Amino acid sequence: MDTLANVIVSSILLGGVYFILSLGLNIILGVLDIVNFAHGALIILGAYSTFLINRALHWDPFILVLVDMVVVGVIGAVLYLCYLRFTVNSPLVRMFALIGFNSVVAALLLIFMGSDYRTVPIDLGTWYLGPIPIRVTQVIAFAFAIALGVITIVLLNRTKVGKAVKAVTDDRTSVQLAGINDRRLSLLAFTVGAGLAGAAGGIISTYVTFGSESGLAFAIIAFAIVIVGGLGDIWGGAVASLLVALVLTGVTVYLSSALTNTALFLLVLFVLLVRPRGILGRGRV
Amino acid sequence: MSLLSSVAVSAGYGDLVAIDNITIDVEENSLLGVIGPNGAGKSTFLRALTGVVPLRGGQVLWQGTDIGHLPADARARKGISMVQEGRRLFPSLTVRDNLELGGFHASRQERAERMTEVVDLFPALGGIMDRSASVLSGGEQQMVALGRALMARPQCLLVDEPSLGLAPLIVDEIYEALPTLIERGMSVVLVEQEVDRVLEVADSLVVLHEGRIVYLGDGSEFRENPDSLAAVYLGHALDEGAA
Asked: For chain B, how many structural domains are there in total?
């Protein structure tokens, strides 16, 4: 019974982190119709940003999440301005460019950071929820992730620019005809999406060890969440994050950690068969 | 000087030339009706004026200045608004949000004033402001689409088939609003399948057939002799019908 309770609590905490892991991917997909194959690279850049600045300046890793957001957001903006905006009519070219960006980032990290797996040293002790031990770091990571997610959703739903970004996902031509510069909104969406990926990387760096090639593993989880939640459906993504965390944690605890990716793909396949528009039925096909 | 002019405008999709050599002036405080059979190029003409479809030739002049190279959003900011066929609302947003995005560049106070004007024009919108645009009836959608375009306080409003799929009573309500817009100093370009309704409200009339102008005038001939319109409309008597 304690084990089950432990799995549930761990899954909730991990689900919050997974939500922020997938949120940027979802926004970019929804607004720009871009499947961001560079998402893993952006996440891992955030993780390394936290690691390097923390090692050099000893800043608090959770403060650095905000720095990661800016750093990776700027990288995303440069990627969009210098390349992606010219590939609107060439999705295949764009896909290869984004995969190429992943490879370049992984190669550069390997050259400059080596093949060692890294971790951001942070230990704030352990709380106990009855018999269930909870690392304080995980609670703070969860709180940061949820706060960032809530702020993003509030900005999308409550501000004029946020509503315009949502409107682009509905009908880009109507946005243009309303006199709104949709190109700036696209840049903003990609920058925010990249920034959120960077923030997710920073948060994850306090959670697990990572290396130059780890971006792919994080990206697979993020893609699975977006598919399970429904393409472009942010609330669906939130529910899917919890579900994916529950499945991965449950499989690790009750079966074997070697089966986590298998379980993830089975979950994705099941949802695609039963709920092709995502778990809440509101995503794109 | 005309408010909006197309000078020898051509546009199309892929290999298809949808409109060819269209030269039309839209005068201030007037309503220009654009009619023609399906596939005549009426909607493409509006989309070319707004920049949604790129020009293949010719010029679009706004108060004498060529704006043909500007993207659609920049043309809209100059004062050209368009209500697209099928309404094309933002279904993930409420009616209020849809309207407010129409006045995106206005101040909060200006938006509130314009919102009041829109509700005065279409009182039915007053009670559904917080309803999702995804659950509106066709008539409500059309009112929101018109209201959204008016929130930009355009000098020139382009409306594509406002009566399509709507009950006659709703269409009446929409057509009753058009003279009010002209009184407010606006020019309207109205693309419509319902010829009789256009003849009732238009100051000038264009008939398109297979992407070309086959009539340009004030439409008086057709009010007196509706049969002559049928011939021009179908592209049969081009010599007699063309101005």
From this structure: 1
